[in-house]
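[Meeting: bench + compute handoff]

Bench side (C.D.) handed over the final construct sequence. Compute side (W.E.) agreed to return the predicted structure before the next meeting so the bench team could plan truncations. Sequence as handed over:
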Amino acid sequence: MIFKDFEEMQDITVTSLSIIKGLKGDVRHAMKKSDSSFTGFGEAYFSTIKNGEIKGWKRHNQATLNLVLAFGEVVLFAYDDRPTSKSYGFLAKIVISLGNYKRLTIGPGLWVAFSGSEELSAILNICDLEHDPSEADNREIGDELLPDLRRFI
């Protein structure tokens, strides 16, 4: 297993997002229909994570995810086990926060997991497909087929 930056993974796009400061509160951009990584709209939802917990592993087989920080700080991981991929066998890690405000567009076929480093953190997923439990695969952290993330957090 080789550690890589998210930008080095096949089928992942990392987009810097703007935060517009305001006296009464800020505006944080997430996604526009005109963004090159927008592939359609199926649903949007928030996923929360408690400090020190790890959610994952999950692999979508058809859906494209667009993950944006809602609040807190989140450590995201992606693992590529696709034998024909240029990033086969690579594990990537990125921390998203207000200081590193990004959108992570993750194409089908990659395993994803994340951890929170605040009391409660959340990410917004703007997905191009509606939820379909038969479209995704799930594995536990510590599964022998995937990296054990507990040593990286």
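W.E. noted at the follow-up: The chain has one domain: 2-151. C.D. will use this when planning the next construct.
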